[in-house]
Amino acid sequence: MKRLENKVILITGGASGLGLAAAEKAAEEGASLFLVDMNEEKLQEAAEKLKQHGTQVEAVKADVTNEEEVKQFVETCVSTFGRIDGFFNNAGIEGKQNLTEDYGTDEFAKVVDVNLNGVFYGMKYVLKEMKKQGAGSIVNAASVGGIRGVGSQSGYAASKHGVVGLTRNSGVEYGEFNVRINAIAPGAIMTDMVRGSLKQMAGDDWESFGEQFVQANPSKRFGKPEEVGALVVFLLSDESTFINGSVITIDGGQSAKY
C-alpha cells in the first residue's frame, strides 16, 4: 500500500517550486490532491501533469492573504473530497533584499501578509476540519531563515520566525485531537525563489555566485525540490505519527555549521 493512498492532501503554492515537488511525490504515493495557487496558468499545467499519475486533482486559484478565499477553498476541498488528511501550508514569497533601516514598510507588510498571515489563515480553517475528523497532519513551510538570521531579509526572516512560533504553539494545542503540526526549514533549495535571491545579490553573475555561495554549505551543493517533497510526504504520512510541534531542517548541514 502506498504511503498516502486514500488520503486527501491540500497544497498551497502548488503550481511550482516546493509545492509542485511535494504534489508530485504525494501523487506517486497515491494521494488525491487539491492545489491552490495565484498563477492560474501554471496551476492548470501542474494539475494536468499530475493527472498523468492517475491522480485525482482539483485546482483552485486563490489568494492566501484573503481570509474569505482561504475559508472558501478549504470548504471546497472538503465538499469535493469529503475530508482533508494532510495540508502542506506552503505559499510564500521572498521579498526584496535590503538592510532593515532601508527595508520598505509596504514591502515588509506584504511579505508578512503572505508568509505569516496566509499560513495562519490556512491553519485556522484546516484545523477546524481536522479536529472534527479526529486526525490530520499539517506541514508549514518555514525556512532556515526562521531559525537564524539571514541578513538583508527582514520581512522574510520575521515571517518565517512567526511560522515557527505558530507551528510549535499549535502542535501543543492540537496533539490531543490526533492532529499534528510540524514545519520544515529548507535551506538553499534550487527553486525560482532562490534564483530570485541570487539575482538580487549578484545580477547577471548569479550562477557563478551561487556556486561560490554553496561552497560554505557542508554538502557543497544546492538542495533539490524533490528532496524537500520527500520530507513533506513523510511528515504527512502515518510513518511520522509521533512527530508533532517540530521544525525539521533540510539544508545540507547549513544550520548545523552556523
Automatic annotation (TrEMBL):
The Ketoreductase domain, residue ranges: 7-187
GO molecular function terms attached to this record: oxidoreductase activity
Coiled-coil stretches: 36-63
Pfam family, one: adh_short_C2
SUPFAM superfamilies given in the database record: NAD(P)-binding Rossmann-fold domains
Source species, domain of life: Bacteria
Record keywords: Coiled coil, NAD, Oxidoreductase
A biological process term (GO) from this entry: bile acid metabolic process
SMART domains (alphabetical): PKS_KR
Record PANTHER family: DEHYDROGENASES, SHORT CHAIN (PTHR24321), ESTRADIOL 17-BETA-DEHYDROGENASE 8-RELATED (PTHR24321:SF8)
Family (UniProt): Belongs to the short-chain dehydrogenases/reductases (SDR) family.
NCBIfam families, per database record: PRK07231.1
Name of this protein: Oxidoreductase
Native species: Alkalicoccus urumqiensis
Source organism phylogeny: Bacteria, Bacillati, Bacillota, Bacilli, Bacillales
